[in-house]
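Backbone shape codes:
===
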Amino acid sequence: MLELWIPLGIIVLVIIIGIVIYNGIVSRMNAVARAWADVVVQERQKNNIILDLEKIAAQYSQYESSIMAKVTELRTSLNRLNTEDMDLATLSETRTKTSSLLSGLYAVAENYPDLKASSLYNNVMAEISEQQENIGAAIRIFNQNVEDFNNGIEVIPNSLINSMFNKKRKLKTFSDAQAESGFEYRPDIH
């Protein structure tokens, strides 16, 4: 009788371990999806700020029409981001457009001291700065979740369960090519 229970116990244990691993992979993928949605939400918070940017650009549009064009480009890029598709290229493009817009706003403010002293301008710039910090934090959380997910599908025995049942692929983390260009060091990561 004991000879029957030991193999049966081992089979049940293997099945339970397989289920736990499978569920862990699914949970990690869901955490990545949630983290991506958080990144998109943080980026889209800029839409609230864009209304104020448009007011500023309208006040100075006779002098600086390029600001309004950059605001429109940013809004278009923000609208292309969605929570379903982890489009790292669009996120990178959005961040580049934000940097371009901020550079333009700083340049305009330098040329027009009354704008620099404007409470609307100062409030918008403070809000944008806070948003950029929040987006950076959301991206760090996203990248951490991607790392956890990738580890969860690549280590043994998880990789065996993944190859048999889940068939999830390794995900890419977000990297900022513009920021990376300032570094000489490149890690040899494959």
Summary: The first helix runs from residue 2 to 44. The radius of gyration is 24 Å. DSSP finds eight helices and no strands in the chain.
